[in-house]
Amino acid sequence: MDRRFSVVIVEDDFLIMEYLRELSEEIGLNVLGTADVADQAVTTILQNRPDFVFMDLRLAGDRDGVDVAQAIQPELPDLKVIYITGSNEPNSLARISLDHPYEVLIKPVVERDLRRAIGLSVN
Amino acid sequence: MRHRLRSAETFTMCCGVLVASFGAIDWLDWSIGTGLLVAGSRYTATAPLAALGFLVTGIALVAAVRRHYRTANLLAAALAVLVVLNVCLFAFGAAEWPAQALSFHAGGPEHAVMSWATSLCFSLAALSIRLFHARARRSVAVAAISASIGLIVVVISLLSILFDVGAIYSVPFFVGHALSSALAFLVSFAGLLMLRPARSWTAILLGRGAGSMMARWLFPFTILIPVVLCYAGYRAMAGDVLPDSVVVSIIAALSSFLLGASVLWSGHLVNEREARLAEMMRKMELYARDRDLLLREVNHRVKNNLAQVHAMLGLQARRVADPVARQGLIDMKGRIEALSTLHRILLAKDNPSTLCAQEYFTALCERIEEGLGARQRGIRIAVHSDRVQLQPDFAISTGMLLNELAGNAIKHAFAASGGGTVDVSFRVVEGDRCELSVEDDGSGLQPSAPRCPEDGLGTKIIQAIVAQLRGSMEVSHESGSRFSIRMPVGR
């Protein structure tokens, strides 16, 4: 790997956020920031301009992860948004598919899932 | 409805007893010859054969209600014989013979002779009694129709007697059809129509539906309106109050108006009820949507909590230095992952109440393979499952069982260098029992000897779930290890 990939984690559950942060760091990602509500997430992502965003669908507040992704789309059209969601119900998956996600992971995620999602070798 | 059906039976029973009593009393009256009923008036008297006929009809009705069908059939046949006998008497000009033979003071011919109308009514009654308990729906329909025709004939004669008692006897068909006979027939046919209300048009009057309620309301009015109007009109015509054509016009106009009003009223009632139903439907939909939302929320909570526990175990595992303790936490994390996977597969469908065994086990095994990195070690899980529907509870338990068994096989059955196959099979045997088996072709380490405390826990979990599923487990170690669990299938 020439340089470390960078990531912003958007997750409204702080336990899971911490776990994702440690997991990301362990596989060599540079965690630039975290956010748990939509507005904060937009600001953090636009400020840090990461390679990836780990995006939860449900966030604290009215707006969800898809709203965040759509808000930053004009600024950062090449941003790779990886959804990490707790619900795989048809409704939620339909909502996510509105945003043409780079990858969708269902919680709980393990190291292997993250590695595969960002295109690192699984072994 | 059931309550009303029972009341209908009681009603028919009463009708039968009433008609039979009337026939018996009248027959006695003829035999003893006191002439109490006979002498009353020529319009009210019943002929002796007719009296016998009523006795038979009444008993037949009671027999039919009590479900003595053979007796009812015999009595219906006797009634038919009676009618034929009467017709023969007419043919030989001996119509008055029964009255003369029985009574000392035979009156005028009109009331001593059983009329054509009476004969027709008895034939209809006999047919109706015979067919009402037939199995074929068409026969029952014929029975209901003949009872209804009888009712119409009787009502015509009763109304004619009410309007102008002299006029009816100028019609040959009705000559000798006395008021008492007509009343007895009215009771008989009413009783007959209530004999099998569930299979005749009377069901509409007795039902619980909105239409039946409306019918009960409107039925008396629609029956009485024409009768009252025509009676008043007839009186007006007889008294020369108004020209006939005007009276008939008034009858036509008023009956049109009143019947039209009753139709409108019924329409109004239906509209009201429909509006109430629509409101109820709307509330139910709202309620269902709320429940749906709540269910989704609860499901989400469950999965989120599992994800939280998983995250905490992951965080903790990183902070434990002791490798055995660390492995314990990682194994536990794996079990929570498996549980989450089960929920995920269950909730991926819109209708999670049942799920297909084959799809479920295949998805679960893929996840187990991935979770333990089996592919990288050249290990493959092959799933063979019957396509049966499983209950969620059963699915969760068997899923946990499979997770332990297949996980164990991947972790321990194969030598570090070589790959292999884990065969998972789920079959329904003997109808309501099934067999879940997990078999590996690995060289196998000593499976009975626990390698660390964690293996002890795996075994304990397996035993607990097998016991919970009321199953029994067989283990064999030949070329590889084979675990097979037989248990009642939860479908």
TrEMBL record, chain A:
Its BP terms in the Gene Ontology are:
phosphorelay signal transduction system
Q: Where in this chain does the entry annotate a coiled-coil region?
A: none
Record-listed 4-aspartylphosphate modification sites: D56
Asked whether the UniProt record includes Glycoprotein among its keywords, one would answer: no
Which keywords accompany this UniProt record?
A: Phosphoprotein
Domain Response regulatory, which positions?
Answer: 6-122
Keyword check for Amino-acid biosynthesis:
no
- Mark the transmembrane ranges: none
* Record InterPro entries: Bact_response_regulator (IPR050595), CheY-like_superfamily (IPR011006), Sig_transdc_resp-reg_receiver (IPR001789)
Q: What is this protein called?
A: Response regulator
Automatic annotation (TrEMBL), chain B:
EC class, as a word, reads: transferase
Which Pfam families does this one have? HATPase_c (PF02518), HisKA_2 (PF07568)
Membrane-traversing stretches? 7-25, 45-65, 72-93, 113-133, 140-163, 169-195, 215-234, 246-270
SMART domains, per this entry?
HATPase_c
Keyword check for Membrane, yes or no.
yes
Q: EC number(s) per UniProt?
A: 2.7.13.3
Enumerate the catalysed reactions: ATP + protein L-histidine = ADP + protein N-phospho-L-histidine
Statement: the UniProt record of this protein carries the keyword ATP-binding? yes
Q: Which residues form the Histidine kinase domain?
A: 297-491
Keyword list, A-Z: ATP-binding, Kinase, Membrane, Nucleotide-binding, Phosphoprotein, Transferase, Transmembrane, Transmembrane helix
Q: List the Gene Ontology MF annotations in alphabetical order.
A: ATP binding; protein histidine kinase activity
Q: What is this protein called?
A: histidine kinase
Tell me the organism's taxonomic lineage.
Bacteria, Pseudomonadati, Pseudomonadota, Alphaproteobacteria, Hyphomicrobiales
